[in-house]
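Project standup — Tuesday

K.O.: blocked on the structure for the chain from last sprint. Re-posting the sequence here as requested.
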Amino acid sequence: MRLDKILADSGYGSRKEVKSLLKQGLVFVNGEKVLQAKLQLDPEKDEIVVNGEILTYKKEIYLMMNKAAGVLTATRDNSQATVLDDIDPIYRRKELYPVGRLDKDTTGLLLLTTDGQLGHRLLSPKWHVEKEYQALVKGPLPTDACQRFASGMTIDGGEICRPARLVLTEKAETVPYQVVYISLTEGKFHQVKRMVKALGSEVLALKRVSMGSLKLDPQLKAGEYRELTQKELRDLSNNMV
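H.V.: unblocked you, prediction finished:
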C-alpha cells in the first residue's frame, strides 16, 4: 500500500497535506526519514512514525454509534447533518459507510464500517440477521397484535412481511401509549412504522437497540460512538456463520 494512502486513511489529511508532511521530514519508516509518497509499505509490519507518534493502522474500521434524532443516515449531504459529519478524521476513510438506514427521526444502534462484506451480510435477507427496535406507540393495540406480527403481516401497498416478533410491556388493550419491542429479519422501507400502522396505531418514537448479537452500549449518549470490541466483532461475525 502506498505511504500517502496509509497516512490519509489514518487521519493525517488529504493526499496534498500528507505530501507536505513528507516534505517537512516528519515521516519516518522503520527508523529512516521518508520523502517519497509512492513508497509501498505493509502498514501492519512496517513501523511508521509521524511527527514523533507511532502510527497504528487499522485494516478495517468498525464503529458503534448511538444515532441522534434529526441526523441523516448518509455519507454526505449538502444541506443537512449526517452521521459521518462528527466522526474523528482518524476514522474518516472514503470507504466508511453506515450499515443500513435509520430514518432521520429514528435513534439508536448504527454500525459504521469500511468492511463491505460484513455490511452486506448484515443486511442481506439470506442471512436473516435480526434487528430489534424499541418503539413508543399509540394504544390501545389490538388483542391479536402479537399473533399478527408472528404470522407475517400484509402492510400498505400489499407487501407481505416475514414473520416478526412483537413484545408488549403492558396489556395491549388497556393503555393509551406503551413501549413495545419489535424484532425483524428484513428491512422494507419504513417497515416498523408501516406494520404498526397496519394495526391501526402509530409509532411516536423509534430506537434500534440491537443488530444480531450487537447490542447498543447504554453508556453511549445520543450522537456518540466508539470502536467495537474484539469480542463484539467476533460474536457479530460468528452470528452469521
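K.O.: great, moving the ticket to review. The chain has three domains: 3-54, 62-125+216-238, 130-211. The mean pLDDT is 92.
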